[in-house]
Amino acid sequence: MAFEGLTEKLNATFKKLRGKGRLTENDVKEAMREVRLALLEADVSYKVVKDFISSVTERAVGSDVLDSLTPAQQVVKIVSEELTNLMGSENAKLATAPHPPTIVMMVGLQGAGKTTTTAKLGGLLRRQFGKRPLLTACDVYRPAAIEQLKVVGSQLELPVFEMGQGDPVDIAAQAVRHAKDYGNDIVLLDTAGRLHVDEALMDELKRMKEAVQPQEILLVVDAMTGQDAVNAASAFDEALGITGVVLTKLDGDARGGAALSIRAVTGKPVKFVGTGEKLDMIEPFHPDRMASRILGMGDMMTLIEKAEQAYDQKQAAKLQDKLRKNQFTLQDFYDQMSQLRNMGDLSQLAGMLPGMGKQLQGATIDEKALAHTEAIILSMTPLERENPQILNASRKKRIAAGCGLQVVDVNRLLKQFNMMQQLAKQMSRGGRMSAMGRGGAGVLRGFGKKKRFR
Question: Is-contact 70 45, C-beta < 8 A?
């Protein structure tokens, strides 16, 4: 995950500061040297690091810090505030057109993930903001680019506008007319990947900008390219006047320096980040939350938002009533595991819990184990799901044959379910949270190995 190495080094540095109690100016400067090295190793631009360390040091050696009762905490607070400022202070929202549709051009280098990101962004805008996006296939050069957009659009149930291998500028203009006619309030233009030195293709983007007058020009950059991402952002901004950046593959780079450098170097905000391969793994970029994650202090706001999106309120009320009446069933058991899966993989969720990133580092939900759980439960009759106590040897054998697994797999699931039922009983009787925590951890471990849940 991004910033993994940086987080560890910063935490080690701050741990030394806390161990000193009172701090001297030399203590702060020594700590800042270590922070500077950590940032450079994370592939943050040298100039950005130099300015950052200068700002932090100037604030941290003040008398209000060195003379305070908790100087180490004050230094951490200053670093957090400066990191937030470095990345843009607050979430930069998409600009909207006074009269729909809002037009967003997606541009960038080849291989940055524009097509998938275009679809992901459309899904996010519909899911979180109630928009009616239209995906537009303007990449007429890459083989199968149009088909790829149609496939991912279909998976997200989003409409895709395409006119084959025509003129991209004309396709974009026609898409805007189509959106006006059919009530789409946002048009996402998936353009071809290109190098900023390719004058012909850059001119094409300029003509497209002139033709459709987009409210946003978002540069899609691969976070794993490090400083090259910052260089690309500068070049595209000079040629087109980009309005923001979408960082992709943030889950695949343990350094993540591009996220810290882009705003400072180009003045353009990071507006969204791709956090995984799945089509729902994109989120608005919040500098304060990212700074909190980098410093190992978690990100409870994003975790709460993910839970709210994944969890069905009506189902939650229904489950609460069942728990109160001690009527927790196998179907409920499966529904809870599915909703946990919808929140994302555990390694990402762990990074949002203060102090939990290291303990659950690398943890993931085993998709195969969940598929087996689903197959077993769906091989049961409704009566068996509601009353698993009637499952005798012959019924278990039939269920195992029906889902292509072994009887031992059915027994394992039933054992896990019994643990959940015991937990439900404790909750219905006002059982303590500590007991619930132990029971819940046991159930999760039941889905596989301790570290990776496999």
Answer: no
pLDDT tens digits for 131-182? Answer: 999 999 999 998 889 999 999 999 999 999 999 888 999 999 999 999 999 9
**Chain centre to alpha carbon of residue 22:** 39
Give dist(CA 54, CA 121) in Å, integer. Answer: 37
Rg of the chain over all Cα atoms, to the nearest angstrom: 26
Phi and psi at 50, nearest 5°, equal -60, -50
Cβ neighbors of 10 (< 8 A, separation 6 or more) are: 35, 38, 79, 294, 295, 296
Q: What is the pLDDT of residue 101?
A: 95
**Dist. CA 178–CA 160, nearest whole Å:** 11
Q: Which residue type occupies 360?
A: L
State in Å, rounded, how far the first CA of the chain is from the last one: 19
> CA dist 413 to 286, 365, 446, Å?
40, 16, 8
Average pLDDT over residues 180-196: 90
Write down the H helix ranges in 61-113. Answer: 63-66, 71-86
pTM of the model as a whole = 0.68
On whether the CB atoms of residues 392 and 299 are closer than 8 A, the answer is no
250: tokens are 């943030």
- Are 13 and 31 in contact by the 8 Å Cβ rule? The answer is yes
Buried b (16+ CB within 10 A) or exposed e, 428-453: eeeeeeeeeeebeeebbebbeeeeeb
pLDDT digits (tens, 9 = 90+) for 268-294: 888 998 888 888 889 898 888 878 777
Single out the residue of 235, 106, 233, 246 nearest to residue 168, CA to CA: 106
DSSP 286: -
- For the chain, give me the number of helices (H) and strands (E)? 21, 8
Strands, E, within 345-386: which ranges? none
The model's confidence at residue 3, banded by pLDDT at 50, 70 and 90, is low
The answer on pLDDT for 434 being more than 80 is no
Phi, psi for residue 219 in degrees, rounded to 5? -90, 120
**Spatial separation of the C-alpha atoms in residues 150 and 154, rounded to whole Å:** 6
HSE on the CB side for 385, CA within 13 Å? 16
